[in-house]
Amino acid sequence: MTTPPGWYPDPGSAYKPKSRAQERWWDGSAWSGQTRTRGAVRGPLVAGIVGGLVLVAALLVGSVLVFGAGVGSGASDEAGTGPAPESPPRDDGSGGSGELPEEEGGPGEEGEVPASGVDLPVLDGWRHDPLAPMVTTGEYTCPGSESERCLRGSSVIVVAGTDTGSAEDAAKSDIGRFAKTAYSKGTYGGITSHEAVASEKTTVAGEDGYRVRWKIVNRTKPDAYVESLAFPHPSGSGEMLLLRSGFDIHRAAPPLKDMDRLAEGVKEGPEAGESGGVPGEAV
């Protein structure tokens, strides 16, 4: 089903807790540059009044897209820049340089829905989002937009697409898209280069998974580490999940080891809709 033109929660600012009131115009095929501040009455419940499931899906997309993330002590703030290559980098974890290609997609695109029945641990200094299996830390003013707020570290579990294949295929196909949406041009000036620092099998909640971790260089500092970790749902449903993590490379950011600790602490949790979670029918 094609999503009709209209105002939807901005997918380019949603990982910033204080930016959820911003909306962006969707022209029916792509996001435009037009944004507006959503009125007080247009909270999450408006989805049940205007637009039904399309707006609910769009709201959920908005809750997982933007990071200001980072690694802590020992991480370098140095980053090289250089001309972009003629061809875009591969998004399969093999590394590369140059800005990542523009991503297509719109409100409610498959693969952007927070997972249900699974949850993340809450480490010291982190907070848990009550609406999704997501933890965040270190809110600050975005380097490329003084009106928006970013995060030094964020991790969220979302549902992968239905045709992702193996965990390895899912992780490799997701990392480039995730990196671009997590560290967008609007907040960090765009990614100028990336290096694959990990591409390996791992175990999450007792399931065989696969992680791809990149170190990215942003046009506007800080640089960052991003990771897409795919694994089957521990319930045995066969559903493929993605644990997406983004950490700034900054002294105020959490240590990179927290990214591993979050993955190691993933466990089965309450179904969405329980304990104040997101209603499962919104998916």
TrEMBL record:
<keyword id="KW-0812">Transmembrane</keyword>
<feature type="region of interest" description="Disordered">
    <location>
        <begin position="74"/>
        <end position="124"/>
    </location>
</feature>
<keyword id="KW-0472">Membrane</keyword>
<dbReference type="InterPro" id="IPR018929">
    <property type="entry name" value="DUF2510"/>
</dbReference>
<keyword id="KW-1133">Transmembrane helix</keyword>
<protein>
    <submittedName>
        <fullName>DUF2510 domain-containing protein</fullName>
    </submittedName>
</protein>
<feature type="transmembrane region" description="Helical">
    <location>
        <begin position="45"/>
        <end position="67"/>
    </location>
</feature>
<feature type="domain" description="DUF2510">
    <location>
        <begin position="5"/>
        <end position="40"/>
    </location>
</feature>
<feature type="compositionally biased region" description="Acidic residues">
    <location>
        <begin position="100"/>
        <end position="112"/>
    </location>
</feature>
<dbReference type="Pfam" id="PF10708">
    <property type="entry name" value="DUF2510"/>
</dbReference>
<feature type="region of interest" description="Disordered">
    <location>
        <begin position="1"/>
        <end position="30"/>
    </location>
</feature>
